[in-house]
């Protein structure tokens, strides 16, 4: 995915998340926001997959664990939805882990739980520092 396309898709996700937050406000369960962030982009013609299974593998390919990404939009962006007081470092670590596990280059972390919507975009780097 070219950088220009990535920016455009990220902007669409941000605009959609903001409109959803304005409409619903904070106070709902995470699943409500996840469903809204799946429904609205689908209405715009984007392909959205929810609860995408991810495997974390060791260097020899052995599966070390499995988890589920909330959403993947157009096969290009991992979207992690939160409904908490504020984003924390472990949320960032979770999203970066999703990027490593999926091989995708872009992710967005969205927190609907605070009065002010929190959105962070991440891009996979070639190397990660320990």
Order of helices and strands: HHEEEHEE
Largest beta sheet: what is the strand line-up? Answer: 1-2-3-4-5
- Helix/strand-derived category reads alpha+beta
| Helix fraction by DSSP (H/I, runs of at least 4) | 25-40%
Q: In this structure, how is the largest beta sheet organized?
A: 5 strands, mixed
Gyration radius (Cα, Å) is 15 Å
DSSP strand tally:
5
- The figure for the number of domains is 1
Please, what is the average pLDDT? 93
Total number of helices: 3
Distance between the termini: 27 Å
What would you call the shape? globular
Could you walk me through the main structural features you see in this protein, from its secondary elements to its overall organization?
With 130 residues, this protein is of the alpha+beta class. Helix content is 38%, strand content 30%. It has one domain. It contains three helices and five strands; from the N terminus they run H-H-E-E-E-H-E-E. A five-stranded mixed beta sheet has the order 1-2-3-4-5, with helices on both faces. It starts with a helix and ends in a 7-residue tail after the last strand.
